[in-house]
Design brief:
The protein has about 160 residues and is an alpha/beta fold. Helices cover about 40% and strands about 20% of the residues. A seven-stranded mixed β-sheet has the order 2-1-5-4-3-6-7, with helices on one face.
Length: about 160
């Protein structure tokens, strides 16, 4: 019985600590909250901040060229971007983990034209990035309206964005 006491103590501590620590997470990433602002450079070196896009519905998408699900959803993202960009919709794709040359080559080879910025590591932390792709839909006033981890289909994206255009 004595050999199980340390294990039992760890289980008890974890069962108390996990709920308490989850309350300490950074707030502001839930639907209905204001999207935290940031500023990053495009692959061409131009600076873009999230507040620069205020007045548009923004799809904030975290991705990598090495991520198969990310690559899978990009053609549909491009199609929705092409259809709705004149209506006040834009995509800001935040590249994580790729060297800029690799990301640029991937985008060029596939004809993607939506804006892409290179994460410096701070934005991934700010947006609590654990898995990619991760997508947030942000309304014209900078409020998060949808959060998705995993791929998003063209139909679903068009439906969600349509609510806020």
């Amino acid at each position: 019985m004595k050999k199980y006491i340390p294990v039992l103590a760890v289980v008890i501590v974890l069962s108390i600590a996990i709920p308490v620590l989850s309350q300490l997470r950074v707030k502001g990433l839930d639907e209905g909250a204001k999207a935290p602002d940031f500023s990053l450079n495009t692959l061409d070196g131009e600076n873009v901040s999230l507040t620069d896009l205020r007045g548009q519905v923004v799809m904030l998408n975290f991705w990598s060229a090495a991520c198969p699900p990310c690559r899978e959803e990009m053609p549909e993202m491009q199609q929705v971007y092409d259809e709705l960009k004149d209506d006040g919709f834009t995509i800001l794709a935040v590249n994580v983990n790729d060297m800029p040359q690799i990301a640029a080559r991937f985008l060029d080879e596939n004809g993607y034209t939506f804006p892409v910025v290179k994460d410096d590591g701070n934005v991934s932390r700010l947006y609590e990035l654990q898995f990619i792709p991760k997508t947030l839909i942000i309304d014209r006033n900078g409020i998060i309206r949808h959060v998705r981890v995993g791929t998003i289909s063209e139909t679903e994206l068009r439906s969600i964005v349509g609510k806020w255009l």
